[in-house]
Amino acid sequence: GLHVILHQDNSTPIVAVTIMYHVGSKNEDPERTGFAHFFEHLLFEGSENIERGQFDKYITNAGGVNNANTSNDRTFYYEILPSNQLELGLWLESERLMHANIDEVGVETQREVVKEEKRQRVDNRPYGSILEEISKRAYTKHPYRWTTIGSMDHLNAATLDEFMDFYNTFYVPENATLSVAGDIDIEETK
Predict the structure, then answer these.
(1) Contact between 69 and 1 (Cβ < 8 Å)
(2) Active-site residue, from 28, 40, 79, 95
(3) pLDDT per residue over 54-103, tens digit each?
């Protein structure tokens, strides 16, 4: 994971910008499962100030890498950048937090991406459904009973207003933890 990436190349001073949102599949409406993971994808679509499809390009053009993942309990985003690009990482995360594009085009695009991910990781793998089968048997009331990827039927049925409500509920500063590590001046970074 991050530890390995941070130590691959000692020749370039680097910085890791990570932001964790306290939202995972456990926070979903049981009739709208898959929202947390869906947002992991959707929030790479762009923002008021970043054109659709340009989020990753800012990072790769700066010599960095990025990714995200979702669990039952949290959603996590990170950028590893040359240390002189710290402001870029902070700006990108502020755009994700404050100005994300949540529109029909992005929602439809990411619905198809998530469906393809489910086909590859679950539907077309031997024993791909084992986690889903274990979870629904291990938990009867607890929200861990559905998988993080959720239901494609729920995602298909969801309206744009439902996606906006999820964003406005969980993607807020008081629900986020920002971490910065690497070759930084602590006072300047603060």
Answers:
(1) no
(2) 40
(3) 999 999 999 999 999 999 999 999 999 999 999 999 999 999 999 999 99
Query: Angle at which helices 160-170 and 35-42 pack, to 10 degrees?
Result: 90
Q: Determine how β-strand 75-82 pairs with β-strand 14-21.
A: antiparallel
Range 48-55, long-range pairs (CB < 8 A, 24+ positions): 48/95, 48/99, 48/101, 49/95, 49/99, 50/92, 50/95, 52/101, 52/105, 52/106, 55/92
Strand partners of residue 9: none
Q: Is 40 assigned a catalytic role?
A: yes
| pTM of this prediction exceeds 0.85 | yes
The Cα–Cα gap between 149 and 132 comes to 10
How does pLDDT run across 152-183, given as a tens digit for each residue?
Answer: 999 999 999 999 999 999 999 999 999 999 99
Residues 42 and 170 sit within 8 Å (Cβ to Cβ): no
